[in-house]
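Bit of a strange request maybe. I'm writing a small parser for structure token strings and I need a real example to test against, not something I typed by hand. Could someone generate the tokens for this chain?
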Amino acid sequence: MHDERTGRTPESALAELRRRLEAGLVRAGLNKSQLAGQAGLSRGTVQEAFKAGARVPSTFTVAALARVLKLPAAELQELRRDAAGGVSGEGPGRPIGQWEPHALEVHPAGHAPGGSRSVEQRVLPGYVRREHDRLLAEAVREAGQGGSRMLVLVGESSTGKTRACWEAVQPLAEKRWRLWHPFDPTRAEAALEELHDVGPRTVVWLNEAQHYLGDRAVGEQVAAAVHTLLTEPERAPVLVLGTLWPEYFKQYTALPAAGREDPHSRVRELLAGRTASVPDAFDASALAAAALLAAGGDGLLADALTRARVDGRLSQDLAGGPALLERYKNGSPAAKALLEAAMDARRLGVNLHLPQAFLTDAAVDYLHDSDWDQLTEDWAEKAYAELAEQVHGKQAPLRRVTPRPQRRPSKPSALAGSPTPRSRVPVFRLADYLEQHGATTRRHQCPPASFWNAAYIHITQPDDLDTLARAATNRHRLQWAHHLDQLGADHGGISALLRLATRREEVGDRKGAETLYQRAADHSEIFALYRLAEMREEAGDREGAETLAQRAADHGGTSALLRLAAMREEAGDREGAEVLAQRAADHGDINALLRLATMRETAGDRLRAEALARRAGEGFALFGLAAMREEAGDREGAETLAQRAADYGDTLALLRLAAMREGIGDRIGAESLYQRLAQHGDALALSRLAEMREKAGDREGAETLYERAADDGDTNALLRLAAMREEAGNWEGAEILYQRLADHDEVFALSRLAEMREKAGDRERAEALARRAGEGFALFGLAAMREEAGDREGAETLAQRAADHGDIDTLLRLAAMREEAGDREGARTLAQRAADHGSTARTLLLEVLQQLWPYGLDPDGTPTGPWSAVAEAVPQVSSSPQSAP
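Reply from user aminoacidic:
Good idea to test on real output. This should exercise your parser:
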């Protein structure tokens, strides 16, 4: 390529430029070091201008050399332009729009959903502007209007300084400004080499400015060069942005003692009036703005707010999270084991402050045999030191903490501020980000034996023991649950005492149960008092029963008095029952008033009964009397009371009365009441009438009434109408109705649509609808269909997906299906997965676990051998509860 105007090629133009510079240097009688000093350029810049094969010097370098060497500047600049291929040298850097923020050291906070883990896929959370952003915006605006400006943000690590600078320069990107980030070979060297070449409309990016201004060898020279850049009119406008930690700012701006060297005089002068402070935490208004962005769909902010909303350290969380995760993934086996033990402790509900001895012993079974064999005696010390090293935002994966002293005594005899047992042992806290990561990624795992063993040996807080015992029960680790409850009871845990007492009752040890209930009752535990009162009543100790029931009532639990009243009424002691119910009523118990009203009604004292019902303040109480009168044949009285109940706000009273009449076959009486309500626009009455018409075979009349009820807002009527169309084979009509409901996120409609799509072979749409339903049960419906169709793998996948969304019992439902089908092995596999997740299922689903493993499971998932909640003493555990003598 050559210049048609001059006939020169870029190579020949550059050679001619260097020839003229060499000639000028000889005539001036200078060496290159002297030339650099007089031109205000670095030696490297001057060397490069003369060196064959080096890049084309900038316009500013050529101008400075021409001035000192007394050469024709215009001619040299024309040669420089030809050498650069016609490009007017704009100096270092490239257009702002071509930069990726993470390349400018903006801390990564996350990755695009579904994207790769590459830099290009990383995304930034929404940005919340604060006071320092206003100062940045002013500097940017003034630079955009033609003035050179500099602003350095001063703040702790990961407080959002670099991100603020990135957001601030975006308006300049639209004006085609350049950005230069001096970095290679070192930051200070790169800055010193090329600051003299910076041209107008350039942002100079001095992130972590201590690497430039604090360099021992050239920091002062860099400061002088920046000052020159800002003060030379021909180079304006430029914008210099930097960031600094407070400790460096104090160091550079501190005045030296008299007679001492002043190593940062130029830096201090440069920074004067050119800094802005960035706070450590978001204030209330900034947090509110972040919450709005999160509500608008910003997942990264929403995630961070779950951890940082209280202390406001949102930027630190966003910056430190990915680094913490990398530390966990790439840490030593011992460090990773400690972190996983801590993750499991927190997800199972143990207190924030984890005893060091517990973590150390718990970590043992998290290590592979080969890693365990290679550990040295000081493995734990090294691992804790590794995990204490901070990442961005002054966060460490696992750090030692000192719990704050109590400000109020936990017991009347305790002294305020005295150390608790927990504070006398070293305790550690897991980083919030890793805690949340563990709660998600490890939710399907049951901690190994060393975890439970360490908990038994080292955990002493009753609340923590209670939490762990519940977690063990939910995972069907029944023996460990029992031992932890024993320990919790010994440390004063009331819930543990109650669970142990219940187990004693279940195995027929009434005396042992009563002893445990008494220990809980000594602490005025209401349920314990309630059960003891029942037991004393059953044993014939009426006085003792009443005393206990009254104690429970005095502590807010009147149900014991009511239960005794019911027992005495069943035994024929109506007078004694009424006395006890009256005592409960005196404590303001509405149910006691209802019971008294029922007793007065039964005794024929209708006025007193109604008065008591009104005192209860509930229409339901009046309806209770109405039901009694209905059963006694007083239909007029029943209707009067039901109407009165409706006037008190119990709008369903007349509907329930109608249902009673329908239940005894009085179709005409029921329909009369339904019609009366329907005339006043009662949608439920319309639905009940529709059901009666449907039962009578009048499908057309039923549909008409269902439609009227649906128009009045009864979604159940619309569901029933859709079901009728299904039953009649009108699938298209049913789907239309289900879709109407699904548009309003009606769960059952979404589930039915999902099943219809599944039957039609549209699995992708079926799963999407089930997920929209927001319930694991919807996914189980699809899983059951696939199981019945023989697609066992597909069924398991859906059940697991439901479990991952919190509905662990879906796995148990599928296990129950396999058990019923005779596939015991398949049932075991699914049931164990449910147990490892931590199933909280109650009802018949627990029978699956109980039938498969009546004594529970060991931590590793093997069935526990026979043991007794009565005969087995609390073990002196060494590695597992089975190891006790």
